[in-house]
Amino acid sequence: MTASVRLDALNHWFASFHALRDISLEIEAGEYVTLLGPSGCGKTTLLSVLGGFIEPTQGTVRIGDADMTYVPPAKRPTTTMFQDYALFPHMSLRDNVAFGLRMAGIARNERHRKADEKLDLVGLKADSAKRPHELSGGQRQRVALARALAVEPEVLLLDEPLGALDLKLRRAMQDELKDIQRQVGTTFVHVTHDQEEAMAISDRIVVMNTGRIEDAGPPLRIYREPASLFAADFMGEMNHIPARVSSDGAQTLLATVPAANLPSGEATLCIRPEALRQDGSGIALGEATVRDATFFGTHTRAHVIPVAAPDMVLVAHLPPTRLPETGAVIQLSVLPDDIRMFTKETA
Amino acid sequence: MRTAAWLYLILAFGFIYLPVGALVLFSFQDGTLPVPPFNGPSLKWYAEVLSDGDVTDALLHSLLVATGSSAVAVLLGFLAAYGLARHVLPGSAVMRVMLIAPLTVSYLIVGLGLLIVLNRIGVGLSLMTAGIGHVVINLPLAFAIIYASMGAQHENAERAARDLGASEAKVVILVTAPMLAPAIAAAFFLSVTLSWDEFIIAFLLTRFDITLPVEIWSMLRSGLSPRLNAIGSVVFLISVTAVLLLEFTVLRRRRS
């Protein structure tokens, strides 16, 4: 089962703290959406509003065609996979997974069959008689997923589901989650603060900050053409170059680049480390001195100081074939498409 | 240093267990006085005690009052703990203190207070009234034990149960209570042992049917006898059983 979600003008206050600000978002049926942001950005609050654990101060939540704003969690077509899994320690895995079906009044044989089916989906069929404390973290996580999916929700809400796992397991579980989502077709809304996880897993990323949506779109678009400086920084490392926009374009200490659509005044020019090139193509940024360089396997990460701006330090990802020496001078350039510019917010 | 430590240990345990040991030893006395020298062993006092209808009646009464009042105290304590731990109530801090405060009131005051009230409203004294008195003293304890073990991890499991469609009653019966089973059992067994050998309240609030401690007291008035030692040993054995049950069922499982 699957359904679309439509959030309209949501606002929520915890006492005087404005936790959600004018959130409007549409999620298509069967979409995998990630809410991404730093702690305290409101992403978990938003998920709780979706799950029915928090009633928003203002605004509406629609799931499918029905208004769900004030419907309690038990009556919503959503289930939540909690961060600490929240398994029932006194029940076997099968009983854990079958719990929602039991609440729905489904007969024992039928619910055990369905529970086994879901345990099979997450690769734990052989362990159905075990108790949660006999499992590893990754296995508990799968049981929580099976339990949430067993009631065939229209929307599955995942609250930092991979937060407690080590990095390697995390990457493996990401692939698995995505795979399971494709199989069941349910709408998944996933909360995380890990932008790599978000990129790896989502059809669409919603970047949040201080209770607001900063940007929403497919991973590639958000990474390469972020809508705000915050989104640009949160999605990965970014070089900031101060610029002054006039009718001639954006002037920086390194180069002047075309700046259509931007009002005159202070601006910030953003270039990803991997967009800084040495082959001379695109816009030349002049010479730079290598301050230090570290080998990362897929690239070398270097701090370079432009000759034209000795107070500026840029991070560049250079080819891994050669580790540049400290003090070496390199030519930097960047393709126009790899540059993003944001007007400086007047503080 | 090591010898001193051992000596201290022996002295400490001797101080605690010597009286009990003497009591049990002289319950096997073959004679009419529970004092040295020890003659025996003999089981005749046990035979006499267990064939004494008053004593066995009192023993059963005690068991009934202990289990009944503990069950009620644990049920009320659990409900109070659940309400206070899971809901935001006006004055919940005051309610918590008021629930635990009876622990500080002496049993004599609790017993006298209940006696006066029961007399006023015309309720006759019986095992039931003694049981009510024991609920009064055990409820704070049951509440404190269960309330202390209601952690946030339980709350999340309750949230998950609600999310999966469970009604409030189902959440409590299928999730909260089973997860708290160790604390609930601990509270129950502790209440049973406290009620089992409680004297003052039982003395004040019973009349014709009496509990074992009251029976022992009335027997004591006719002087020392190995019979009393035999009864005391039985009481001790039952208390020990309750404590061991607690240890093996509840505390052991929690450790695993």
UniProtKB/TrEMBL annotation, chain A:
| Top-level taxon | Bacteria
One GO biological process term is: putrescine transport
Q: Which PROSITE patterns match?
A: ABC_TRANSPORTER_1, ABC_TRANSPORTER_2
Per the record, what is one GO cellular component? ATP-binding cassette (ABC) transporter complex
- Short name of one Pfam family: ABC_tran
Start and end of every ABC transporter domain? 5-235
Protein's recorded name: ABC transporter ATP-binding protein
Species of provenance: Roseobacter insulae
TrEMBL record, chain B:
UniProt keywords, alphabetically: Cell membrane, Membrane, Transmembrane, Transmembrane helix, Transport
Q: What is this protein called?
A: ABC transporter permease
TM regions (residue ranges) = 7-28, 58-85, 97-118, 124-150, 171-196, 230-251
Q: Its GO biological process terms?
A: transmembrane transport
Membrane protein topology class: Multi-pass membrane protein
Q: Name one GO cellular component term.
A: plasma membrane
Name the source's superkingdom: Bacteria
- Describe the location of the ABC transmembrane type-1 domain by residue ranges: 59-246
Please spell out the taxonomic lineage of the organism that makes this protein: Bacteria, Pseudomonadati, Pseudomonadota, Alphaproteobacteria, Rhodobacterales
Where does it primarily localize?
membrane
Q: Which family does it belong to?
A: Belongs to the binding-protein-dependent transport system permease family. CysTW subfamily.
Q: Which Pfam families match?
A: BPD_transp_1 (PF00528)
Is Ligase found in the keyword set? no
Q: Where in the cell is it found?
A: Cell membrane
Keyword Cell membrane annotated = yes
Spell out the InterPro entries in the cross-references: Bact_Polyamine_Transport, MetI-like
